[in-house]
Give the backbone structure.
Amino acid sequence: FFMCCCFAGCKPALPPAAPKAANTAQTITVNQLLQRFAANTDTVYVYNFWATWCKPCVAELPWFEKLGQQYAGKKLKITLISLDFLEQTQTRVNPFIKEKGLQSDVFVLDGGNDPNAWINQIDPAWSGAIPATLIIHPPSGFRKFYEREFTFDALDAIVSPHL
């Protein structure tokens, strides 16, 4: 049900950051995620939907990590939402987090039995392809969904004006 699309010019990944020992994926439901989307704060929220088996997803993860590091101390929250199977959290997702040294919050989505039931809740324009990213800045009313792979510069150009 998920497609992984790669666009021309895929960039090589940066070397992993120093591992954060306790970073493991938590489970999040669609309703919990929708509640987060509705938060009315002055923070810029970046939600990246990805999976360990999706090559362009894995290729862009360092850019989200770099964005979080570059704006540490600013009102920016990076959340990585894995679409791997829930039962693979301990065997696949957590080892991946450790191997890549991911510092951002990582959740594995519990979408229930029918992904088509929740994809439109995330964004009506979403075909279900990953990587996909939702960026929300409540004070400015900015909410945009991107169904594509990002470079660091493209991400930074969208996020930085809101910080």
Notes: The radius of gyration is 15 Å.
